[in-house]
Structure formats: structure tokens, C-alpha cells
Amino acid sequence: MLGTVEFHYGTRDKIGYACRLLRKAYRSGASVAVTGALPDLKALDRQLWVFDDVEFLPHVLAASEQAMPDRLLETAIWLTQDPRQAPGERSILINIGQSLPEGMDRYPRVFDIVSSEEQDRRLGRQRWKAYAGQGWQVNPHEIQE
Questions:
Q1: Averaged pLDDT, groups of 10, the chain, 145 residues long
Q2: In what order do the strands lie in the sheet with 109-115?
Q3: What CA–CA distance (Å, rounded) separates 93 from 122?
Q4: The domain containing residue 13 runs over which residues?
Q5: Number of domains into which the chain is organized
Q6: Measuring CA to CA, which residue among 26, 1, 29, 5 is closest to residue 94?
């Protein structure tokens, strides 16, 4: 058995939900990588700057092939299209994308966020089957907003 996939489904606001999940992970001391399509990662990056008036969540958007300064490599939240390239040991991978993340076997715990939008739900069901087929333990969490 690989790790576990916490399958969170039914949110109306995938980016807002990811912000709340990242806040909880950061407060617990976890080191996290977030993966998805670049436009979604950029939207998450923007939202992380403004979603909480009193708390800042340190994060890096690794959206280019340029090398990161060493001082940024230890940042707790790493936003990347390729989670295999997130530096250091990271205990959690959050998928806000619509496909199975590359290199997810590096992470003991994966959170997959699925919106209530029909196409995202359909692709989410496909990912669920793929996770289970690869030997991941999949735990469903319906989001009640």
C-alpha cells in the first residue's frame, strides 16, 4: 500500500478551499507541495496573499525553470506544476489539477480537491479509480459549504 489520498469533493470554490486547507497544514507544521495547472496555481498564489487579513502563509510559486534562491527552498508551501521538483522532504501533496499528479509516490499523503462543477467531478471520479488502482488508500470527504 502506498500512502493515503484524502479526496475532498463538492466545493464551490476550489482555490478558496485550498487556501483554508493550506492554512491548517501550515499551522500544523507540515511542509506542502501544491500542484495543478499554471493558471490555477497563479490564482492560488494571488489568493494566498489576501485571503486572511491577519495571517500570512509563506509560499513560493515555482512557475519557471529559473533556479530559486537558496533562502526560498525551505518555504513551507511550494506551488508547482511538477511536484517532483519541490525541494526537501514534504509530507503533503495537494492536487488542485484535473489529472493524476506526477511523482505523487514521493508523498505519504495526498489531498485531491474536486469542485462541484460537473467536468471536474467526472475527472475526479477517474482520478479516484486511478489512485485506488495504484494501491493508494482513498478516504472520501464531502465538503459541506
A1: 91 97 96 96 95 87 69 83 90 97 94 97 97 96 90
A2: 59-62, 77-80, 32-35, 92-95, 109-115, 4-11, 137-142
A3: 21
A4: 4-63+73-142
A5: 1
A6: 5
